[in-house]
Design brief:
Helix content: 10-25%
Strand content: 15-25%
Shape: globular
Number of helices: 6
Oligomer: single chain
Radius of gyration: 20 Å
Distance between the termini: 30 Å
Order of helices and strands: HEHEEEEEEEEEHHHHEE
Largest sheet: 6 strands, antiparallel
Length: about 325
């Protein structure tokens, strides 16, 4: 499952291609790709065709492209900025990658990818015509035109935008640790009062978003915390250290383009990330701990696996 770094790499790649571009046509190749779209709002193609996109935003693992209020001709505006342009706070094109979703930028005449589900043709005032292919082998990802809601804290809805709005389908998702509006104090307070274990807390997207199985294992290893440690027994100092390690591992993964174990996890140009070569814990069961040399262990956890060092990460 793609996590924050993989999704952020896609968002950053989409930003220059979609900001101020107009959607000229939408081709839904597989209806399963629009299961998140509320058909009561209208046909997805009709709602998108002619709309100007204002940028690319992300919260946790969710992506969205804010849409201007009405159709508009493509006119280059050198001084255009997402926080200053005319816009509607009503709609956004929401993209969820699911387990294997990819968003690829292609030339207009490029052939469709093997598992292409939706194709958008867009007209950019600088780059000209581009094709945006939504490719999804396992069909768990989807697109939708979603209404925007005000953020409770009045801060920007997500990374990459300044509007204090967020799609309704993302409103329940907590901010991620790289979000400037992430509230460290609230996170630490809730963490201390939750009757759960530390890795379950990290994977709870209503508490902190963007952290999945891979980066949770990596951060816990770096902080020397057992994945099944009760949060109530985690000191404030140790909790702060864990949050710092979560941020550190996310920043490192971003710098290396995300983690790629197979051809599913790629950026908008189809290139894979390299963070898998830097993993200290995840997927290393039976191998020596990079810190102490003890054989790493793989344990069953929530229908997945946790990887940890039994010496460095003792249950306390």
């Amino acid at each position: 499952m793609p996590e924050l770094p993989e999704v952020e790499v896609v968002r950053a790649g989409l930003e220059p291609a979609v900001a101020d571009a107009v959607i000229s046509s939408v081709e839904v190749l597989d209806e399963r790709a629009i299961t998140r779209h509320d058909r009561a709002r209208g046909d997805l193609s009709a709602l998108l065709t002619g709309r100007r996109m204002l940028g690319a935003a992300r919260r946790g693992k969710f992506l969205w492209l804010p849409l201007a209020s009405s159709t508009a001709a493509v006119e280059p505006r050198a001084s255009w900025r997402p926080d200053k342009a005319d816009r509607s706070d009503e709609d956004a094109l929401l993209l969820h990658l699911g387990m294997s979703g990819q968003v690829l930028l292609r030339d207009p005449g490029a052939p469709l990818e093997r598992h292409a589900r939706v194709r958008l043709m867009v007209e950019h005032p600088v780059h000209g015509e581009l094709a945006v292919h939504f490719v999804d082998q396992r069909t768990f990802g989807s697109l939708a035109v979603d209404r925007m809601l005000p953020t409770p804290d009045g801060a920007a809805g997500g990374f990459g935008v300044d509007q204090p709005r967020v799609p309704s389908q993302v409103a329940h998702i907590a901010r991620d640790p790289l979000d400037p509006a992430f509230d460290d104090r609230r996170f630490l307070t809730v963490l201390a009062t939750r009757r759960t274990t530390v890795k379950r807390a990290l994977l709870d997207q209503t508490l902190v978003s963007g952290v999945g199985n891979i980066y949770a294992d990596e951060a816990l290893w770096a902080a020397r915390i057992h994945f099944d440690q009760p949060t109530a027994r985690l000191s404030t100092r140790k909790a702060r250290e864990l949050l710092a390690e979560v941020r550190a591992v996310l920043h490192k993964a971003l710098a290396e383009g995300g983690t790629s174990f197979d051809a599913q996890y790629v950026n908008v140009n189809g290139a894979s990330g390299y963070f898998a070569h830097s993993l200290n814990a995840y997927g290393r069961d039976g191998q020596p701990c990079p810190r102490c040399g003890t054989a790493m262990v793989r344990a069953s956890f929530m229908n997945r696996s946790s990887h940890y060092c039994p010496r460095c990460q003792r249950l306390r």
